[in-house]
Amino acid sequence: MHSVIFTVEGFDAIGLANYAKKVQTKVRIWPPKDIISENSWVLNLRTDLETLSWLIVFLEDTEGGYKILALDDEPEWIVGPRRQP
Questions:
Q1: Which of 25, 45, 63, 76 lies at a C-alpha separation of 20 to 30 Å from 54?
Q2: Spacing of C-alpha 31 from chain mean position
Q3: CB neighbours (10 Å) of residue 31?
Q4: Quick one: CA torsion of 31, 13, 37, 39, rounded to 10 degrees?
Q5: 18-68 pLDDT per residue, tens
Q6: Cα–Cα distance, 60 to 19 (Å, whole number)
Q7: In what order do the strands lie in the sheet with 3-9?
Q8: pLDDT (0 to 100) of residue 14
Q9: Rounded distance, CA 21 to CA 31, Å?
């Protein structure tokens, strides 16, 4: 397994911000390099395993939940063209 997509569920915007602040106090790099949305991140298991661990630990005392999608290979992003203003 190369990476995971980690998604947090069950928080309003303020709860999600508070959760992210707690995680930020424990990990070296926050937010992760690949952000899908404000509550979903791609985590490389070779470099972000500690981050994944803290994301799960800080959910234990909340009503929030999470989903993990395992990716066997490195994700390949297909980037579309940008429109000029």
A1: 76
A2: 8
A3: 13
A4: 70
A5: 998 888 898 888 778 888 998 999 999 999 999 999 999 999 888 899 999
A6: 11
A7: 34-37, 40-44, 3-9, 65-71
A8: 92
A9: 10
Q: What is the pTM of this model?
A: 0.84
> Where is pLDDT greater, at 7 or 24?
7
Q: Quote the longest CA-to-CA distance of the chain.
A: 46
pLDDT band at 84 (very low <50, low <70, confident <90, very high): confident
Contacting residues for 54 by C-beta, under 8 A, at least 6 apart: 23, 26, 27
Domain-by-domain residue ranges, the chain? 9-69
What does the pLDDT read at residue 8?
95
Q: Within a 13 Å sphere around the CA of 79, how many CA atoms are in the beta-carbon half?
A: 3
